[in-house]
Amino acid sequence: MRLGILLGLLSPLAMSAAWLPIVEAASAKNDRLFPSAASLRQRGFVPLFDGATLEGWDVKPWHRGHWVVRDGIIDYDGKAEHKKNAKNTLWTKRAFGDFVLYVEWRLPSTPKTKPHPIVLPNGDFLRDEKGQRKTTPRTDAGDSGIYLRGSPKCQANIWSQILGSGEINGYRVNRKLPDAIRKACIPSKCADRPFGEWNWFEITMKGDRMTVVLNGERVIDAAKLPGVPVKGPIGLQHHGDPVQFRNLLVKETPGGAK
Fold this sequence. Notes:
The chain is mainly beta and 258 residues long. The chain has one domain: Jelly Rolls. The chain contains four helices and 14 strands. The strands form three sheets. Strands 1, 2, 3, 5, 10, 11, 12 and 14 form an eight-stranded antiparallel sheet that branches. It has a four-stranded antiparallel sheet with strand order 4-13-8-9. The longest helix is centred in the N-terminal third of the chain and has 6 residues, at 37-42. The two termini are 34 Å apart.
């Protein structure tokens, strides 16, 4: 059984860690695919999610019944009902500056074949003679992401694209930016596990640089993000698809928000 992080009677805002088992069966082989609770604790990580409630998260009326906690998992059905899609994202109440975020996630939906756009090495979409995006059929289980510093542009993508998760979409698609900055926002490889399996991110924000490790592979290496806010909350993205999160921990680093 994997070790998770539960705070019991302590608030996540106190950022005190009590390390207790999560109720989830897993083989010893699968356990080795994730950092251990002990190793994260030794590195100074503390819980962002207590494993039992959404205390510390800015839960709005339209989130209720959609962003829920089940068996130590934040389970989102993709159906929060605010007319402005951006407001359906779930944000932390606290703001963070420089930090390292650890989070496990998966896309639980049954995959379906959908048309996917083709991305060129410079970050542009491949287009036809009429300027329309060219697509190719690809198996798809949904889309979500992790927003950093309160900015939807500063996002580690969770999706089904051939590029792989971890892509910083808001900067990659900005054609006003230099090619070198946009290219750095494209994952160096697709390190996603098969649909339905758990994955883990370790995301580092340091100044205007963002690094993403996905399942032990560094897929984004200190990408420069011009104009990124100095601090802001962390968000679990609404994109209209089911997504699940567990074992969310953060380690603030020098220069981070207090």
